[in-house]
Every structure is written in C-alpha cells, then in structure tokens.
Design goal:
Blueprint lengths: L13 E2 L1 E7 L2 E7 L2 E3 L4 E7 L3 H9 L1 E6 L5 H9 L13 E3 L5 E3 L4 E13 L2 E13 L12 H4 L3 E3 L4 E3 L18
Antiparallel strand pairs: 1-11, 2-3, 2-6, 4-5, 5-10, 6-9, 7-8, 9-10, 11-12
C-alpha cells in the first residue's frame, strides 16, 4: 500500500531551463524548473514572485525558454543563484534577439520564444501563460524528418525535493506502441 505523504509537489524530474527577458536594452536570465504544457501552442512558466526578471517580463510581455544541456549547466546554475537586482547577468551567455523580441541563448539546444497572454498568481508565485511564437533548434538536434531529437540533445532534468540535476536516460519504448494489454 502507498503511504500518504501529504500535499507535496511531486511531478519531478522536469527539464531545467534558463528563462530570458529584456531589461531595457540588455537581457536578464534566471533558472526555471517550474514549467508546464497547457496546450499544443501554450506553455506556462512559474517563477517566485520576488524574482527581478518578473518585472521585465511584465513590461515587455516577452520571454524565452532555453533548454539547458550539460555543457551550459554551470552558467545556468549561476543565473539561478544570483538576483538580477544585485548583478548584471546580461553577459553570462552569448545571445541574439529572436524574431519576436525576446533574448535567445546561442548555446541552448532548443529555445521557445514566447508572448505572455496572462499571469496566474498564487501565493508567492507568478505563472506566465504564454503563446509560443517561435521555436529555435540547433540543426544537429533535428532528425531526418526535421523533428526535434531529444536523444541527441540530452536536456538536464531537475528534481525538486533534493535539488539535484539529472542526466536524461535511454529510450525504453515508443509511445502508444504497446498495442496489447500486458499480462499480469
């Protein structure tokens, strides 16, 4: 029998990302592991309300979600540990401005450039409900059909209760390929 451990946020691990927004004419960045898919064209980024970047996102209504791989993890971890109120994080990453105006990390294997449609507030958090404007993928992470190949990308995962980063693993099967009910 399972043990009830109370009301715990336990949908981990999740991909870790660097969220970017423009702060005037310079970008600012933060580490984010609270993200969600809420439709085929909408995502949600949940950030602690006191984050400096939240004000920048509210002002521009634009943000980028940059998937983190192991190579860029030290810089990604750093931007999550230092407040934009106390440090200029604009030079941590090489970036370009995306077609919709959000900063896009050059070294991220995959970036979603988004427009903020709504903000859902809960105690101590602001969740930005976003439309995906553009998706940028490093060409080496596209398969022969032009689809994203996460096996080559190897996104880093974040596990909240222990604050650990995890490597992605091997393929164990194709979705919807188990056509028969398994025998027990």
């Amino acid at each position: 029998m399972k043990k009830n451990i109370g009301s715990k946020l336990a949908l981990y691990p999740m991909p870790i990302t660097v969220v970017g927004a423009m702060n005037g004419d310079k970008p600012t960045w933060t580490l984010a592991g609270h993200l969600g898919i809420i439709g085929h064209d909408r995502v949600m980024v949940s950030l602690a309300a006191p984050h400096f970047i939240n004000g920048c996102i509210k002002e521009t209504k634009k943000l980028s979600i940059n998937l983190v791989n192991e190579i860029m993890l030290p810089e990604a971890d750093y931007v999550g540990s230092v407040s934009g109120n106390k440090a200029d994080k604009s030079q941590i990453f090489a970036y370009e401005i995306g077609d919709s105006g959000a900063p896009v990390l050059n070294d991220s294997p995959l970036t979603l450039e988004c427009s903020v449609d709504d903000i859902y507030e809960t105690p101590n958090f602001e969740s930005f409900i976003c439309t995906i404007d553009n998706t940028y993928v490093a060409e080496e992470h596209l398969n022969e059909k032009g689809k994203v190949d996460y096996n080559t990308m190897k996104p880093v995962l974040f596990e909240f209760p222990t604050y650990q980063y995890l490597k992605t693993g091997e393929i164990i099967g194709k979705c919807l390929s188990f056509k028969k009910m398994p025998e027990k």
